[in-house]
Amino acid sequence: MHRSRMKTCSGFTLIELIAAMVIMGIFGSFFAHSFQIAGESYHGVIVRQELLRDGRIALERMTREIRVVATATGVDAVTLSSSEFSFRDRYGNTYTYSHVGDSVLRNGVALVDSVATFAFGYYRKNGSTTTNGNDLHLVVVTFTLSRGGESIPFRATITPPAFAPSNTCWTEK
């Protein structure tokens, strides 16, 4: 009687349990991989947002200050190189932007970090390059921020008001 009772009980065999566990493992690894990809994508978006924010702030500040590179009577640039631009504005304030290591410095203080490439370009009115402050008409700033496998390029072309046509007038604040 005891044997007949065991044969009538329903249940799973060891082979059925192992097969079910293998199938659940396959599905689990598929979903885990999907979650990993989603997590990496989210992290990439966050890094790109931070780089964009940092780059825009730095570029806006450089643009705003480079626009006052000249006095009412001429250019007052101190250093013109591909990695450093130093100048005085029409109020006598001195600004120095330089690329050191992976940072862009403004007067020796980090303006933006994670800088992969950086360059200033200086141009005359005819479009040719110059290293002479008296011939300066246009300043181009280009840099790339890179972090966590993400890279974002930035570029600004700046024509200070003093370099504009001669009918431009200065207004003092």
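That was protein one. Protein two is written in the same sequence-then-structure order:
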Amino acid sequence: MTGRLKLLIAVIAGLATLASACGGAAKGSSSTTEAGQPAALGAATATDPNAYGRPELLAETTWLNGQLNDKSLVIVDLRKKDAYDAGHIPGAVWYDSTKLKDPDNANYVIKDTQFAPLVGDIGIDNSKTVVAYDDNAGLSSTRFWWVLWYYGDQNGKVLNGGFPKWQKENLPTSKDAPTVQKAVFKPVADANAIASMDAVKQKSAAKDPNVVILDVRTTAEYTGADVRSAKGGHVPTAINVDYQLSLAGSDIKVWKSAADLRKQFEQAGVKPGAQVITYCQSGVRAAHSFFTLMLLGYKSVSNYDGSWAEWGNNKDTPIAQ
């Protein structure tokens, strides 16, 4: 083999490797991810401003409509029971969204020993893909998703636009509750997904530029103009990005584009690579923003589940206004 031929082969091999690294699918391919996103988005990184880092976490209505007969899928309705009874996505099971906090201490997440039988009763085990939806801008569904995530199940998705979008698109509904085969869910708590009051105190006092404490309440709550605990204000060093700013639309709320979300958080000071602790009043809005950051591809996010209900009612916690 001549030196010129060897060089030509090396150049061709290098071009092939580069093409593979830059996307895989040939131009014009209609390949998609399981959540209905273009395949290229599934391979995107959190630094790509035009794509979610984890697009598989957000399920689109058109995709879900095509998966209604998938036995490996559990669709969970987090609306009020009367709304579920009046009509729901075919095959969806109902979960009481009030049972996502510890009944003995409402500041904290429901215990694993309580949560496991509840989700097992609606057919969820550790192998199932779960799609959660609601009718209140994703608050209940992201909270349910976060509790699943915290207990080790990272196969969950949230339906973009929830039931309002499903209805507006005239997709099928049913009043029939499905026959459920009970399952066994084995929770394994992920300590990285949750933050304690002591941990937040420590991070706030340290003023580490690589740590962001993210208050996702309204501006009025953040400044102390709206007081919902014994004390008003915010955790010292916390920055404020209202969870609602992650959504677009009026009657139907959907997540903003990846580019808009990434710009929003970075301009507020939530840089890629930062360790982020979210909090609100009760850990529900904080779970919503936890989900949004994970959707974008942030790697280190935790939810201060006690949130302001705990911090603002503790006489020893410092506050800023």
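Residues 1-46 have pLDDT under 50 and may be disordered. Keep this in mind for the problem set.
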